[in-house]
Amino acid sequence: MIQPRFKDAPHFKNFWENGNGRQLIDFSGAEVSCKDFEKFALYFYHVDEIGDDVVREVYFTKKFHEASREIEGYIRNGVSATDSVPESIKELFTQTQKVPEWLDDNLLKSGAELCMRSNLDSLISLRDYCLIGGYDYAYLNKPLVVTEALKKGAVKRLSETLDFWVNVTRYSALELHAKGYEFAIKTRLIHSYARLSIKKHYKNWDTENWGEPINSWDMMATYIGFSFVFLHSLQKLGNTFSIEEEHGIFHLWKYVGYLLGIPEQLLPDNKKQATEYFYLWTSIQPPSDKDSVLLAHSLLNESLENPILKFKVQRKSLRYLHICCTWFLLDDEVCKRLQIPEVSNKKLFPKSKILFNKIYDKLVSRDSRIKRGNKDQMKVLGDYLNITKNSNFH
């Protein structure tokens, strides 16, 4: 059994006593300790066996594009107990087509509305807090590193993450056979495909220290990033949200996690649970290593490589704004470990954003903000997809 090996390490203590961890505790009212560690630690070596069986039975027995087309057919048309399909397919769709008793459509709607209403702040939060902050956890990044995500390039990686996030956070996106539901199933199978490929081809995978590739505990941490860390970031940028919207965000990502095959007991219902679960997980993660720094810089330099903005000066300005937000949202210590460049007047843009959000909140109705946010987010996604799907851009 793994131990909370880093709970006495300086990076862990500084984060939870003085850094963003302290802010998360204050934000949630949580009481953190390692008393439930053993209950969660076993998930470091637990994976989505159902998804893995589908990949072995479908993807590994035919050409990739044929397997993908077959899976798309099952997603869009559904699978019944009497269908003549592989047993693994029946098992996967028996689970994902069964709507859990706890699912509340009103809460899903509230969560989706907060994602849209927060407009570009949602995308800033995902990129400059959730994604780059995740790179500080060295073991969490190992699947990205060994599958050579750096070679694929940050523009492509960001485009895929944005495509997934936007499509699961729209109205009715997660209904059976809808687009968000489809993205969740496909993402689940991509995780299984990557995990089995790592285990087959990467002989130096250190299971004892790193856990199974893309294990259930790491998946939990990722989805706490999409829900709780995302909420904390919105708050830091001056956004307000109702209790129902807050519960809605957790509910939305709990259901996405359920569709992705994450065990339900790992998916928090509220910010108190999320903090306590996250605390335990961070106790087994070392701080940034050289791979973390490479991933962080790849993401920062994405603005320079991305041809969405026509002129070099625009791209440099965008990179500067993302650097400012990263310094504002993350701990200074984390930024230094990830070697985020120092820039002048780095608090000016985030502080301006906070002021703008307070004024915008008072002047513009909630419905108008939701519509505008949805439109702006879809525009950003469209720009990314035009670049990455209609060319050989890498």
UniProtKB/TrEMBL annotation:
Database matches in InterPro entries: Lcp-like, MPAB/Lcp_cat_dom
Domain ER-bound oxygenase mpaB/mpaB'/Rubber oxygenase catalytic: 152-343
A Pfam family this chain is assigned to: MPAB_Lcp_cat
Protein name as annotated: DUF2236 domain-containing protein
Annotated source species: Chryseobacterium gallinarum
